[in-house]
UniProtKB/TrEMBL annotation:
PROSITE patterns: 2FE2S_FER_1 (PS00197), 2FE2S_FER_2 (PS51085), FAD_FR (PS51384). This is CDP-4-dehydro-6-deoxyglucose reductase. InterPro entries: 2Fe-2S_ferredoxin-like_sf (IPR036010), 2Fe-2S_ferredoxin-type (IPR001041), 2Fe2S_fd_BS (IPR006058), Beta-grasp_dom_sf (IPR012675), Cbr1-like_FAD-bd_dom (IPR008333), FAD-bd_FR_type (IPR017927), Flavoprot_Pyr_Nucl_cyt_Rdtase (IPR001709), FNR_nucleotide-bd (IPR039261). The lineage of its organism: Bacteria, Pseudomonadati, Pseudomonadota, Alphaproteobacteria, Hyphomicrobiales. It comes from Kaistia hirudinis. The keyword Oxidoreductase applies.
Length: 335
């Protein structure tokens, strides 16, 4: 027996067959719901149940019990138990198609003790079109991939910037990266992912930990070309002052955006630190009373994203206006 899924605010509906998940049925019906990992871990495909019920073969890792109790479900794993009325974002169907091509290293530069700025140039003739916030895959010799967020807005010159955090034991970030030099070739797949700036009227809250700053940097730089950008608040969580590898550059963004606020938050600051302390998500709710009126972009550690989602939803944030990019699989998703 099939069940009907109806999406409020979009007048979209589709049928889900007994063997299908909500996401699989949506994609079969050419309804492009947000998604990424398709394994129930990243949480990108969250939607809100207004009426009806779903079940899972096993509890998905990317869904907190508090979220489930509040009616949040993951489309990539959820199977309907009845007809459903749901609140979910429907994305544009015409996203840039990913391609595989060769790139060459333009430069490698240390930004911090464990962060490398890697600039790549794609081979000539490639028409590079991507949405600020998306990521690429670097293809290794054995065919496996490592994913890195694009840290630069589309430039038109065929170059892209990556912020690569060197992870102890990382096959690419600690092993292969150390052997690379300017001029070396790397195979890449791009663009990928559904983390990108939505066309929305809401003020933006950008929350990052670590090199989760990279895709947010791409988005904010793109907003600098907007004649009427929305207000932007950037909260960047790090451990120590030395980890704030783009601190001075970020301070200069206020000169290019009319309403921009930058709040670095340190969990292990030195004695001389006079800024915010603690966890970055806590700083957000301390500052912003009307979180339900904002579009929220989260990128960084799975712990931060899980805690931030629960905290913000508990304060009334719209599930359809929280966008996430979690570094859950460090072997494949380590921007």
């Amino acid at each position: 027996m099939s069940y009907r899924v109806s999406l409020i605010e979009s007048d979209v509906a589709f049928d889900v067959e007994p063997h299908e998940t909500v996401l699989a049925a949506a994609l079969r019906a050419a309804v492009n719901l947000p998604h990424d990992c398709k394994s129930g871990t990243c949480g990108t495909c969250r939607f809100k149940l207004i009426d009806g019920a779903v079940d899972y073969a096993e509890p998905p890792m990317g869904l907190e019990p508090e979220e489930a109790a509040a009616g949040i479900a993951l489309a990539c794993q959820a199977r309907p138990l009845s007809d459903i009325v749901a609140e979910a974002e429907v994305m544009p169907s015409l996203l840039p198609d990913p391609i595989r091509c060769q790139s060459r290293i333009v430069s490698l530069e240390k930004l911090a003790a464990d962060v490398v700025h890697l600039k790549l140039a794609l081979v000539e003739g490639i028409d590079l079109a991507y949405l600020p916030g998306q990521h690429i895959n670097i293809v290794l010799e054995d065919g496996s991939t490592r994913s890195f967020s694009l840290a630069s807005r589309p430039s038109g010159d065929g170059t892209i910037d990556l912020h690569v955090r060197q992870i102890p034991g990382g096959v690419f970030t600690e092993g292969r990266l150390a052997t690379l030099a300017a001029g070396d070739a790397l195979d890449v797949e791009l663009p990928l992912g559904s983390f990108f700036l939505r066309d929305d009227f809401r003020p933006l809250v950008m929350v990052a930990t670590g090199t989760g700053l990279a895709p947010i940097k791409s988005i904010i730089e793109a907003l600098m070309d907007d004649p009427a950008p929305p207000p932007v608040a950037l909260y960047w969580g790090m451990r120590t002052e030395a980890d704030l590898y783009l601190h001075d550059e970020i301070l200069s963004w206020a000169e290019k955006l009319e309403d921009f606020r930058y709040v670095p938050v340190l969990s292990r600051p030195g004695e001389g630190w006079t800024g915010r302390r603690g966890y970055v998500q806590d700083a957000v709710v301390e500052d912003i009373d009307d979180i339900e009126e904002h579009a929220i972009y989260l990128c960084g550690s799975p712990g931060m994203i899980s805690s931030a989602k629960s905290l913000f939803l508990g304060r009334g944030a719209s599930v359809n206006h929280i966008y996430t990019d979690s570094f859950l699989f460090q072997h494949t998703r380590a921007p």
